[in-house]
């Protein structure tokens, strides 16, 4: 990850650490937007795709590229954004030309040439190289001298513990379709199987919330790519749909959640996630944190 700066949410006053994501340049060097520490923090209320990207210059090859603007989802439901500094190209490394002398390295022992002698003078006898002193044999400590450990060096996990998941590989979100793809990949990363896009209306009979639905044998999800916060009605409709399907309900939103929707989701135990433009879903409530920890075994 890139550098991090401390920001204060204008809505609730809580402080967070905003870290810029690192992306690979075409030359292979890592590129991250520079975050100023004294830049004002603004709340994102309406989104425009043209304003979600920032030009960053690679410090290795000076190539300019378009990357997602750093954002942070506050637990209160607000989406925070700060200004980004333009990166300056780093100093180029100097390679010696063909006519420039190459600096000599440390002296290495080479062959010793004999000094010419004059007539009648005996040649000096070659001196044998000095031998290092004989090394003492290493003796193994006896059983009584070995340290006694109070605790074992490693405690194996129980056999019933699930194998640790690999790191999630985010996909940058540029369109609404990218948001749906990212949410489906994230649900599969959590352990939910056969997650596909659902074109059927909710089984509860209530009008579907805005966005696209995702379904699997054990999960019902909703992806809201609109520019407004998710409403209380949308959260309740998804919860009813999950209850009828006996599945876990998960909500993904690009613009956060209304205050009453966030409070209702906490009471119902419905995980809420905010999608940033880097493609990494951020949990915004306690049930979402528990889902990330437990994965598909979340109750």
Could you describe the 3D structure shown?
The chain is globular, with a radius of gyration of 31 Å. The protein is 16% helix and 20% strand. The two termini are 32 Å apart. The model is unreliable at 88-100 and 105-109 (pLDDT under 50). Among the domains are: 4-82, no CATH class; 176-297, 3-Layer(aba) Sandwich (Trna Endonuclease, Chain: A, domain 1). Strand 11 (212-216) and strand 12 (219-224) form a beta hairpin. The longest helix is centred in the middle third of the chain and has 15 residues, at 176-190. A 6-stranded mixed β-sheet has the order 10-11-12-13-14-15. The protein has a 3-stranded antiparallel β-sheet with strand order 5-9-8, with no helix packed on it. A two-stranded antiparallel sheet has the order 1-2. It has helices at residues 176-190, 232-245, 259-268, 286-294; strands at residues 4-8, 15-19, 23-24, 30-31, 41-43, 53-57, 64-68, 71-73, 79-82, 196-198, 212-216, 219-224, 248-253, 272-275, 281-283. With 299 residues, it is of the alpha+beta class.
């Amino acid at each position: 990850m890139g550098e991090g700066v401390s920001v204060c949410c204008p809505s609730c006053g809580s402080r967070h650490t905003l870290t810029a994501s690192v992306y690979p340049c075409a030359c292979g060097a890592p590129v991250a937007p520079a975050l100023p520490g004294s830049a004002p923090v603004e709340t994102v209320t309406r989104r425009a795709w043209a304003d979600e990207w920032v030009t960053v210059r690679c410090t290795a090859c000076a190539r300019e590229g378009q990357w997602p603007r750093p954002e942070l989802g506050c637990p209160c439901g607000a989406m925070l954004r700060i200004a980004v500094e333009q990166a300056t190209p780093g100093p180029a490394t100097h390679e010696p030309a063909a006519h420039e002398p190459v600096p000599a390295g440390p002296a290495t022992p080479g062959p010793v040439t004999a000094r010419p002698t004059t007539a009648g003078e005996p040649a000096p006898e070659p001196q044998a190289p000095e031998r290092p002193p004989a090394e003492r044999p290493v003796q193994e400590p006896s059983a009584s001298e070995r340290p006694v450990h109070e605790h074992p060096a490693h405690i194996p996990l129980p056999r019933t513990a699930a194998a640790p998941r690999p790191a999630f590989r985010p996909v940058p979100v540029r369109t609404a379709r990218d948001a749906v793809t990212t949410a489906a990949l994230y649900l599969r990363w959590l352990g939910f199987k056969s997650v596909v896009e659902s074109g059927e209306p909710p089984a509860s009979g209530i009008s579907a919330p805005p966005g696209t639905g995702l379904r699997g044998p054990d999960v019902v999800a909703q992806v809201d790519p609109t520019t407004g916060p998710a409403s209380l009605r949308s959260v309740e409709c998804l919860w009813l749909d999950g209850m009828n399907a006996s599945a876990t309900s998960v909500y993904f939103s690009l613009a956060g959640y209304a205050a009453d929707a966030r409070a209702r989701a906490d009471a119902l135990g419905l995980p809420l996630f905010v999608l940033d433009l880097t493609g990494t879903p951020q949990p915004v409530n306690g049930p979402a944190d528990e889902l990330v920890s437990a994965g598909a075994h979340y109750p």
